[in-house]
Amino acid sequence: MKQFFEFVKKECFHIFRDRRTLLILFGMPVVLIVLFGFAITNEIRHARIAVLDQSQDPLSHGLVRKITASTYFDLAENLRSEKDIMPAFKKGDIRMVIVIPGGFQRNFIRERKAAVQLLTDASDPNTATTLINYANAILMQYQQEETGLKHLPLTIQPEVRMVYNPTLKSVFLFVPGVMTLILMLVCAMMTSITITREKELGTMEILLVSPLRPLMIIAGKVVPYILLSFVIANIILALGAGIFGMPLKGSLALLLLACGLFCLTALSLGILISSVTNSQQTAMMMSMMGLLLPTILLSGFVFPIESMPLPLRVLSNIIPAKWFIIILKDIMLKGSGLRQIALPMGVLSGMTLFFLVVSLRKFNIRLS
């Protein structure tokens, strides 16, 4: 074992001596977590809107003040006629036009109903849908404030409650996803490149004739990356909690256990890639195409799996990142315990065992 620890010590020195590797290992998590947390978000703030108020009464003025008082909308222009609507959209910075027809207050008081027209720029469908939802929520709130305690007969009054993420912060989605992406890149890609580099330089043959067994050599190669992955995972958790207020409702020990299991899964994938490639370039391409893209596209990190076609939903089940993101959300947001995450933990354990057996088998075949 002394020889093994000396080998691990040598690998650690090798990693810390390479400044580019250190920059990737510790710079990438900080850049990605800040980028995804601040820049890449589904929330829309300060969307510029125009208003065509044909009623000009106290109720319509109150409605405009209510909408523009929120952080979602900024009043950019007051239109004079319907002919100004399309030119306002063509300027490019107006996302929505609110048209309040004449007699708005009179209709609301006498007929107990009044119409408001919402026109959005649907060249970006997601933004248009989000703005309509924001505006509808504000209109409903304004209506309740104006009607007070007057209730209509046979009225369905929904009571909406958002559990686990009441403020609908998109960062609560991105932090688990970024953590998964970074751990996958660090563990799988760096491991595959490191082992392939030894084969490319011809030093792997020298290591194999050393007193250490091949299994111990592979273990010695991946142990430093397991330790680094734990450090990086803690850095991401600290950044998520300190900067974005990411909660941790479950057990920290269980979360670190899940991180360790996912690191092993990613490392086994990296060993598998290194066992079938002979150059760093090939290993990097396989890691990028085979791990990075599926992690982003098919894990539920960016796009909801439920909205995908059936073949892609089935394919997503063999993506380790999908199960790890489920575990992270369950522990961090829902406070789930080991019983609730037993299925994804079992799937990751099975994947790890399968990848290790296949990669070691291929490695032994190559040695023979």
TrEMBL record:
<dbReference type="InterPro" id="IPR013525">
    <property type="entry name" value="ABC2_TM"/>
</dbReference>
<feature type="transmembrane region" description="Helical">
    <location>
        <begin position="222"/>
        <end position="246"/>
    </location>
</feature>
<dbReference type="Pfam" id="PF12698">
    <property type="entry name" value="ABC2_membrane_3"/>
</dbReference>
<keyword id="KW-0813">Transport</keyword>
<feature type="transmembrane region" description="Helical">
    <location>
        <begin position="252"/>
        <end position="273"/>
    </location>
</feature>
<feature type="transmembrane region" description="Helical">
    <location>
        <begin position="341"/>
        <end position="360"/>
    </location>
</feature>
<keyword id="KW-1133">Transmembrane helix</keyword>
<feature type="transmembrane region" description="Helical">
    <location>
        <begin position="171"/>
        <end position="195"/>
    </location>
</feature>
<keyword id="KW-1003">Cell membrane</keyword>
<feature type="transmembrane region" description="Helical">
    <location>
        <begin position="285"/>
        <end position="305"/>
    </location>
</feature>
<feature type="transmembrane region" description="Helical">
    <location>
        <begin position="21"/>
        <end position="40"/>
    </location>
</feature>
<keyword id="KW-0812">Transmembrane</keyword>
<dbReference type="InterPro" id="IPR051449">
    <property type="entry name" value="ABC-2_transporter_component"/>
</dbReference>
<comment type="similarity">
    <text>Belongs to the ABC-2 integral membrane protein family.</text>
</comment>
<dbReference type="InterPro" id="IPR047817">
    <property type="entry name" value="ABC2_TM_bact-type"/>
</dbReference>
<feature type="domain" description="ABC transmembrane type-2">
    <location>
        <begin position="116"/>
        <end position="366"/>
    </location>
</feature>
<keyword id="KW-0472">Membrane</keyword>
<protein>
    <recommendedName>
        <fullName>Transport permease protein</fullName>
    </recommendedName>
</protein>
<dbReference type="InterPro" id="IPR000412">
    <property type="entry name" value="ABC_2_transport"/>
</dbReference>
